[in-house]
Amino acid sequence: MSVIKNPYFLMACLLFWVNQYLEKELGIFIPWVHAYGDDLLAMPVVLGITLQIFRWIHPSKAQFRFTKTQIVVGWLYFSFLFEFLLPKWSDLYTADPWDVLAYAFGSLLFYRLINRY
Fold first, then answer.
1. Domain containing 14: what range?
2. In a 3-state reduction of DSSP, which class is residue 29?
3. Where are the transmembrane segments (predicted)?
4. Which label site among 13, 19, 95, 106 has the fewest CB atoms less than 10 Å from its CB?
5. How many CB atoms sit inside 10 A of residue 3's CB?
6. Where are the alpha helices (H) located in 58-96, listed in sequence order?
7. Structural domain total, the chain
8. What is the mean pLDDT of the chain?
9. Rounded mean pLDDT of 89-116?
């Protein structure tokens, strides 16, 4: 199945978009969703888009999947960038160890629900 037709990927994208719309356009902030929703959905959305691009260009096409190691590297990269590096460079970012757990859970959701043949 194509990633862009996967209902779990589409749901993650839709929820991410709705949350952004509520916050940026309507000024509505749902506390828990504002704090962790984007972090939870980031990995399924980003890894899903990346997986779809790989399936377009990789010789294995629809049979291509990310390995567990590749998904862990993606999780570590996001965690390091958004929870360690960027908070040191800019006051716009705040380090939060719970975000690292949200990225991990999002990575697990991606692995179980989206990263399929």
1. 3-114
2. coil
3. 40-57, 69-86, 98-114
4. 95
5. 22
6. 68-80, 86-89
7. 1
8. 96
9. 96
